[in-house]
Amino acid sequence: MTTARRDTYTPETLLSVAVQVFNERGYDGTSMEHLSKAAGISKSSIYHHVAGKEELLRRAVSRALDGLFGILDEPAANRGRAVERVEYVTRRTVEVLIAELPYVTLLLRVRGNTATERWAMERRREFDHRVAELLKAAAADGDLRPDLDIRLATRLLFGMINSLVEWYRPHHDAAPERAQLVDTVVHLAFDGLRTAR
Amino acid sequence: MTTARRDTYTPETLLSVAVQVFNERGYDGTSMEHLSKAAGISKSSIYHHVAGKEELLRRAVSRALDGLFGILDEPAANRGRAVERVEYVTRRTVEVLIAELPYVTLLLRVRGNTATERWAMERRREFDHRVAELLKAAAADGDLRPDLDIRLATRLLFGMINSLVEWYRPHHDAAPERAQLVDTVVHLAFDGLRTAR
What was the ipTM of the complex prediction? Predict the structure, then answer.
């Protein structure tokens, strides 16, 4: 567990510790006491930075969501054939998931007991929906298999991508190289989705 | 929550209620008191059937594991080209997952605090390993893309398949037909894994 001297604390380091504790104990199972112990600072010091644990949750899932929605604004997500755009978005989604692993892990685990959790789930569904729209456009172009149920394909695609948070540990010796991981996900998904060449 | 009169109780119905409670509350979070309330029978009646909650866990995950390992003994898993065998095993794995949804869900969620949980995780890894061996044989036959990292591909394949337990609700109106679900998983996986035709 990360510990740090109080005078080195910033909102950023507090957030990083909080996300780690949320992922280990579950958000519901985490108290301000747990956060205080893990961070090695007093509860009143934490309250100096944030209003409470729900604000830490909101900041943490926002970081994941900003990363994901940012992809949709990138030039390559907005030009060219839909199939190329959705392939690009898939590649970048895996990259963001890896770069922001603890934050995306938390986002994928929230279950909806508080307003912040429900908001996070809603935003996550919106992202999935945007990707489904791209897949639909690619299907309309004739670039995906014609018998494909897009809703189902979207769920399976995200099922495969999101499963990374369960087993991918970047600092583990046997972990695949990032570039290879990203390539394998994209190839596995799209050489299956595309019309046979 | 299922309730039933004591005199209608069998080990089978008790198991079915226990699995539901384990999946809702987590195995660690479930007490004999919870099981007694959910089943509508006394704790001593439960002890008449089983030694305790760990025995219920063992029976439940055994049901999932027996279903999965049974696939590997089926004739079509043992004859023909490796790529056809592994495609068959994938199809049947999805079918067993759907048929035994609560039991497989529990199996995928156990985390290893008790001997039974550690045993279940070990058996699950063994099943994944058997599928990885089939994929390796298919690659050696030249039937899979030559650049494929089999270990990674196995994880992604199971990531996609296992994600079904998170969202597939067979009695939900918008749920896809079972046959279509199975076909889509197999096509998505293998039209990606196979050498381009």
Answer: 0.86
